[in-house]
Give the backbone structure.
Amino acid sequence: MAGRAVAPARGGHRAVSLLSVAGVTKRFGGITANREIAFDVAAGELVGVIGPNGSGKSTLFEVISGFYHPDEGEVRLDGHRLTGLSPDRVCRLGVARTFQKLRPFAGLTVVDNIMVGALTRTRDVRHARERARALLERVGLGDKAEAHAGTLSTGQRKRLELARALATEPRVLLLDEVTGGVDQRTIPGLVQLVRELHAGGLTLIVIEHNMRVITAVAQRIVALYLGEKIADGPPDAVTRDRRVVEAYLGQAYAAPAPAP
Amino acid sequence: MSGATAPAVAFFALAALAPVVVRDAFLLDGLVLILLWGSVAAAWNVAGGYAGQVSLGHSVFFGLGAYSAALLGTRWGLSPWIGLAVGAVLAIAVGFVIGFLSNRLRGPYFVLATIAFSQVLLIVASRWRAFTSGSEGIAVPFRPGFWTLGIADKRVWVYLILALAVGVYLVQLYLERSRRGYQLAAVREDEDAALSLGVPARRLKVAAIAVSAALTAACGALWAQYVGFVDPFYVFSVDLSVRFALGAVLGGIGTALGPFVGAALVTTLETYLRARFGGIGAGLVGIYLIIYGVALIAIVRFAPQGLVPWLGARWRRPAAGTAR
Amino acid sequence: MSASPGAAPLLDVTDLDVAYGDFQVLWEAALRVGEAEIVAVLGPNGAGKSTLMNTISGLLEPRGGRIVFQGERIDGLPAHRTAGRGLAHVLERRRLFPFLTVLDNVLLGAHNPVARPHRAETLARVEALFPVVAARRTQLAHTLSGGEQQMVAIARGLMARPHLLMIDEPFLGLAPLIVEQIGGLMRRIRDEQGIGIVFIEQNVELALRLADRGYVLESGRTILSGRSAELLRSDEVKRIFLGDLAL
């Protein structure tokens, strides 16, 4: 039922598009949060999404995961139309996500939390529990199995949310902020975890504010600003892109330095 | 997930043994009512506790069950068992509508909508003299026999309602342990997060409400036969709805045994106070509110999760060394 | 219009450590504001800018470090105390009382015992600076546009007769024209009333064109500080916001 993504294609030109976002426009009253956003994600790619506050990154995730229906445009997974489907249907088709503001099921134990995800792929409660325990180990929460999710630290909650989404055996995983709000010291561990998942063949789209992290991890970066896509390419090119620099810092930084 | 089923077994075993040792009709009557109100509270718990859909309009289902049994019995001489089935079906229909609303309305607005339903049916039942005998209510005929639920022996009633109670208890237990149970718990905690994990939250909520409705209606039908009289102002009242919810809340919303314990507490208090102070009407209504108020305050203050979890925690404390 | 080198600073924050429970968010943060100076606090998301401001005004308590305001230590003082000492804090997203009138909102700014006696006089001064307050006195705050709300919020801050005005993201969600207006008003407050201003801003260039000096925070630490002219175009700033590959 749930397929794992194929191994990442090198080079990318001939890569098969797994997820495609085409002409997505989303308006809220007078504000256009997403304007004709379009990009493809190849199977096995790790794409970063960056942009200053208010550029439409979260809205884009909400549209892809089915929580918002776009006013125009569509999202397809392996050719299959996702737009217009309810979020649970989108998940069952293979797109999972985490939330920027973490949402653990606080009253349930850690293992139970992950089981909810696992039960989307299996009817057997026992099997789901085994799968959950395996994922717990995978993300490094092995000793917290029976703890109530509400008692976890931020970093642990991030891992829980990750494990929970992974339990649904996604083909594409949307990560909304991996390093936001966590203790500095735990960041390398989280980054390593994301790297491992990617190395295992998972296709990832990651919203991230920490530039150091995303430029180190992503193969490709899509930059948004005021609802539009302003850049799409390898990390070094995008972070030097004049429009991106201008968006984050202002024209003064984008302009070439005056001759000495 | 609530662990030990031992207390539940003890509870039901005690109830099963009671008729053997107790002969007093008054006490047996009390037991029947405890089990009945416990069953309704547990039926409510399916929607309110397990699915997190707090409704204060469940009397609409109860009344549908009661009226179905009574009307089909008096007008067409049909067996109350058929009345029960019809009532359950009608309740499921109404349940679907309310379930639909639960996906459109949040929190207090949903609660108000549920209250509205019960009040609408109250008005219909109390005004439609041609069909329902209006505000006078319906006297349920007593025709001896099991098929007609004309049973004089209280002890038989105890076992009958006990079977119902165990049934509803098992439904709750299933909800706790099963795949659907985990999914419902997730919906209850955070619906959007549940959706993002592939849980069909909307369908589940509607299904939970429908099941709850059917079970509540069944209780209503049996109650009508037991008590022998259906009064629209009682069966569709908000008071009754609150009582269902209260039993579950006081006993422990997240547990299968909780509603029975909570209902036992409320019913016992109520029966005692009625016997003690006697009389009917406004004075009695006032007493109920005082009980409710005091019990609520006490539970919220000392045992906010409900009696069953509170007792459970105290039970386990001596065994502090053993991990769960 | 900046502080003379020898003068004691209006606000001097050093070695500030702030944590939420076990979770530390600021490490040895530093900030200095002189009399009649505009200072910008910049940094990527989650750098700790709001946390710093909230700790200075007393909404949060620091674990360590010093906050010296007008020569006196105020670290650990709760917010309602700092308000009476000449420090005003305009919160992110304005936080006006939506169902109170503009006038009520503004007058509440003078609630503390030091400002209260001079309320009428301060109100006149404030209305001269912000005509919108007089024009919309009886309107409920939530009916105002974003720009108008921001002006009312700053006006409310000024009612406390502060020597230092702290504003968290004054330009959030506002049209460029309004941003210009408010920027101009901030300069006027500095020049005409000698009030120091510290503000947090996402847009780096905008902030540095307005401010005299700036501080850049990253991951809870004060990484850079300097005169605006130096920070503008700085490669370091680029690196902080866009990572090492940007250079």
Q: What stands out?
A: Residues 67 and 230 of chain B are 7 Å apart (CA to CA). Residues 6-236 of chain B form one domain. Chain B touches chain A through 23 residues (CB under 8 Å).
